[in-house]
Amino acid sequence: MNSKSFIIFFFLMTYAIQAQEIICSAKDKEIFTTRITALKKEYTPKTAFGETLVFVGKTFLGTPYAAKTLEIGSKESLVINFQGLDCTTFVENVLVLSLMLKNGKDDFESYTAYLEKIRYKNGKLDGYASRLHYFSEWITNNEQKGIIRNITGDIGGVEIEKDINFMSTHRELYPFLKDDKNFKGIQQSEINISQSSVCFLPKDQIKEHEASILSGDIIALTTSIKGLDITHTGIAIRKENGRIHLLHASSKGQVEISALPLVEYLKKIKNNTGIIVNRVL
Which of 41, 52, 75, 211 has the smallest set of CB atoms within 10 Å of its CB? Predict the structure, then answer.
């Protein structure tokens, strides 16, 4: 290794340590800078926060859907990817950028701090099991942080108890679960989740309570699949027709707004039982 290569290698190693295990390509860093700059120019500070979420979410329209974007490397890292999003990373990025606009932040360090706070238990990355893999746990933990409030019970939701164990009973689907420490950590998370009931709004009652859902609410789709709590998530958006639609990263290909209102959209989803509605504080 020549002196120039060593200097570059040392710089990269130092950056990795200081960045606390952040994985972010130069292209994604560039996209972040361009996006936050453009958002700041168009952002109106007095806008209701729900509308800010929709405003930010719409800037991702057309972004390709990409599954398992966080399953990178040999250990858990804070993965940043603006070039491909799944339903959860879409919601996380929209929420983080919206919070940055609200709080007057535009630097990359603030972005990574917000993202870590939202994505991990108690806001700290501490291995694979610290990530909020199950979205019901994501909701509960971010409610405890004071970021969101689960309003499902306020708008007619009902409580059910369900054993959550999909990840541990499908260990072969998750490469990181080959590690016994990670596996045991996920099992403990599942035990914790299963000890609490889940409040959801049954799909046949959503139409009755649709007026209570606001643009910018985070919608989670509950499921009858054994061992699983939630299969999809997105952001509510009320269109000109007065109906609530879903702004989301669709597994069919990209970030989009559902052509059908949420009530009709859910009828086409196999195993869907209803929704959980969360409002950002």
Answer: 41
